[in-house]
Fold each of these.
Amino acid sequence: MRGRAGRIGFNRDVSDAPPPGLESIRLHDTRRRAVVPLEPLEPGKVGVYTCGPTVYAPQHLGNMRSQLFPDVLRRMLLASGLDVAYVTNITDVGHLTDDDHDAGDDKVEAAARREGRSAEEIAAHWTAQWAEDRRLLGCLDPDVLPTAAAHVPEQIAMVRTLEAGGHTYRIDDGVYFDVASFPRYAEFAGLDLDELEATGRVENVAHKRHPADFALWKLSPPGVRRLQEWDSPWGPGFPGWHIECSAMSIKYLGERFDIHTGGVDHIRVHHTNEVAQSESALGIHPWVSIWMHNEFLDLGGEKLSKSLGHTLGVGDLVARGIDPLAFRYFFLQAHYRQQQSFSFELLEAAATGYRRLVKHAVAARDAVGGDVTGGDPAVVDEPRRAFWSALADDLNAPQALAVASTVARRDDLAAADRWALLADFDRALGFGLAGAADPDAPATAASDPRIASLLAEREAAREARDFAAADRIRDELKAEGIEVVDTPAGPVARLT
Ligand SMILES: [Zn+2]
């Protein structure tokens, strides 16, 4: 097994001392079924792993909830002064259409065949889309974004360790984990294995000893060459879905690490299997200190997807003229462990709240020239403590957001106090308030893609010494109330 040698470095928010209220952080651990204190394995450092997307289609807004909540978690940990290493993965191979039963088609391969493209093209396209969606929602980029296909040797090494430890058996279509070899298997999710055995659909994979046994390595069927396959000690094939997260999290965060997150739908199978194979391979318990899971976003079942003809994603918000950060605000209105109902009416209400918050923040910011140091401790300490202690209490984002909204609206606060607070809160809220524009002002040159493209066109004309064309574009912009000023750093567009 790879030990700590391959571990990545840690990042730290050194901008400020830890705010009041963040002295002790408590988080809900699925394994212990309780809110527990965060006790980093190495003082001052926290490693976090989040299960990422299977990249064969757009991600719906519900999936983005499982990216948003660890983003708030990570921002809070950074604000508390901890060094944070944040890893999320890309599943570009091994995730089957019937992943509960190790059966069906590989999702990325199926999409590639359907669209007549390579598996790599499909994965690259949807990875880029997902990364852009994350950015639009205000999520910080991961420190490492490993892909399953690029970590096959690590996965094979882990399966070999499990094989040597007597945790596997081989059948026609692959190498399987033997859950009977890991007595704690049912503990993590509180499963009833006898019931599973009685009701399990063993017919999906012939010769599996127990329905909960899961594939570690799937062999390519005889005579079939898959789009993505690798040689292995067991023959050509591809890794099972679960092994990638164990192999990659251990590679980048060490054999034990602090926090693993994902959606609640991962608890019974994917995370149960990650625990079984990691603890069996490493001979340790517990492998991960705290497991955090977010609840579903209720998209109203069939109704909403049917009306749109596809699942609802960040692109749909943009197409409707809704700022993706208004969805971030909407997400923050519910606790991550609560199911949240989605409708466009609820989102519009959140968008109004979001615009109000930004408007007040921008007014305060501009009144003090962006100075974040002007807060009077006698005034700002209490709301700061209220905000950060809400987040320190198992990420109570709705309560923290309520503190921020109240501060934004409070007329009795001086602009210096208001901006000092909102700039501080924004380290966790992630709205980018320091660079935000007044939402009621007309579109600025920089934020309007049409004007940006006209500016680029004018610049190209100037470089080609086509001054007539450059002047024509300048006049066109002027007619729309935008003045172009050429500076040593390039042209700048200003509203006149
Ligand atoms: Zn995973």
Amino acid sequence: MKKTTTKIVIGLEKPIKVIHFSDTHLTRADGRDDDRKIELAKKRRSGPFPDNELIFKETLEMAAQGYDAVLHTGDLIDFVSYANLEAAREFAETTDCFFAAGNHEFSLYVGEAKEDAAYRAQSLDRVQAAFGNDIRFDSRIIGGVNFVAIDNSYYLFEEFQLEGLEREAAKGFPIVILVHNPIYEETLYEHRMSQGECAYLVAVPEEKMQSYPAYRRDQQRADAITLETVEYIKTEPMIKAILAGHIHCDFDGELRDGLPQLIVGKKSAREIIIE
Ligand SMILES: [Fe+2]
């Protein structure tokens, strides 16, 4: 597992050191689940995630190295199963991880259905019970930094999340946001489009989605609250950085001058020194 180190300067009296993980995609399933889930586990493990158990082991080891905070931006599990949720509980308990949900946290079977609020509701309570913080919106102040986790993993922010973020800003601490899905910015968009049929980013301008397959355009189109939230994130001076995952590779960008958006890949850990 690769480890990089990044520094963010926001004017803390005493620096803190945190570690950021994302997209572990655990693929455990056993006899407590049905045969379809066990088949899915085999397929996903022999397909896109052959080394996720090794990465999870290294993640637990790295998380134990005395960081001020352990942060994870979602897709810890690839799909809902008894064994995956047990692993999530173990991870949350042993690392005291502060967590933002990814889209896969609520996948009953991968890619089986349109993923929306109704789909998420089928597993939300069961998934939430495995984690130590509210995985759809929560905050935790550590060393003078207010870490705010927001689930935007269906490419949307919601009204309660924008209102919550505004309340967090009013607390007067510098904010670092954790989201699963990165927010659109030009350089990242160009990078993504050089690699595939769409960018998998939040709030991509409509004209920049013209070449997307129609179902991807529908999946990734922002609504009014999402656009309002993105604008708020870009302009609220208390917001100092965004940490994200979802695209499975490292990327260092900026939503605007001086507002870094740091993405960590599925085989990476990013140590962040905040000072
Ligand atoms: Fe992922």
